[in-house]
Amino acid sequence: MTGQPDRGSAVGRMLLGIQLRRLREARGISRKVAGHEIRGSESKISRLELGRVGFKERDVADLLTLYGVTAEADRAPLLELSRQSTQPGWWNASADVLPNWFELYLGLETAATLIRTYEVQFIPGLLQTEDYARTVITQSDGPGAVSVKDVERRVDMRMSRQRILDRPDPPRLWAVLDEAALRRPIGQPAVMRAQLERLIAVSKRPNIIVQVMPFAFGGHVAEGGAFSILRFAEPDLSDVVYSEYLTNALYLDKPSDVYRYSEVMNRLGIDSTAPDQAADFLARVIAEM
User: What is the mean pLDDT of the chain?
Assistant: First the structure.
């Protein structure tokens, strides 16, 4: 893959969904009635309002009419958002080698202004070297389970994701890594050494913070596992918590959920090594290999 990843349509869908929900609620119209208007169901309206699926322009036009939005000046911006929501993301050409639940995350990640992540087992995808990523991808499905061609396509995808960190307006990335992710051997020693050296290098970038949760600390607040919290420039959008499991992923945006995960992330930042100590910690791990 070449070129700079464009901002995805996921945020556009979420913004449109928020506006449509507000219009529906202001008119006192139920999701069931709205769903009937667009030849769908209550659950379809719920998915649309959450920005989980793309919009058909016809459906948006019908909903706007139902909600009493008839002036062209008021309809035009929302109809334009619906058109943008169907534009393919930069990853579209390789979507067939991705889990379908991961595409939404790619759109959110591309549009985020702040990405906070805690990892237990692996180095975060945004910070992986090519050889480390190739080894993780190969091992995760088992040797021979994925063709060499598809492994390379997935590696290319992961490397393309990292270009958001090199944009003129890159997101801020705050990564807390469990010490286990640093010491777990992935591939040959040279692969692991190069990966840790890359972490040292990127930790010096102004938009990237790397911290380590050391074994010596013992039990901590994030024993539940890895997660990420994404924040966006648009004031109408809440943070989104992303948590992946074997066959799917959770996307949480309820204020109570976001608040709890944010508390955990803040506590991790306090209890982990200070950002200016991360490079020394990583260097010690390399020296002990």
Answer: 90
111-152 residue pLDDT tens: 899 999 999 999 999 999 999 999 999 987 766 677 889 999
Query: CA torsion, points 3, 125, 158, 261, in degrees to nearest 10?
Result: -80
In CATH, what is the architecture of 95-287? 2-Layer Sandwich (3.30)
245-254 mean pLDDT: 89
Q: Where in the chain is the domain with CATH 1.10.260.40?
A: 10-84
Give the model's pLDDT for residue 7. 46
Q: Which helix (H) or strand (E) holds 177?
A: strand 172-178
Contact 257, 241 (CB under 8 A): yes
List CB contacts of 124: < 8 A, sequence separation 6 or more. 117, 175, 177
CATH level 3 topology of 10-84: 434 Repressor (Amino-terminal Domain) (1.10.260)
> Is the CB of residue 164 less than 8 Å from the CB of residue 5?
yes
Q: State the pLDDT at residue 12.
A: 84
Asked whether 8 and 106 are in contact (CB, 8 A), the reply is: yes
How does pLDDT run across 76-90, given as a tens digit for each residue? 999 988 887 777 788
Return the closest-CA partner of residue 244 out of 110, 125, 145.
125
CA dist 75 and 208 (Å) reads: 40
CA angle, corner 191, sides to 189 and 195, nearest 5?
115
Could you read off the pLDDT of 149-191 as tens digits, one per residue?
999 999 999 999 999 999 999 999 999 999 999 999 999 999 9
End-to-end Cα distance, the chain? 34
Distance set, CA 246 to CA 42, 134, 144, 190 (Å): 29, 19, 19, 29
Structure tokens of 119?
């990892």
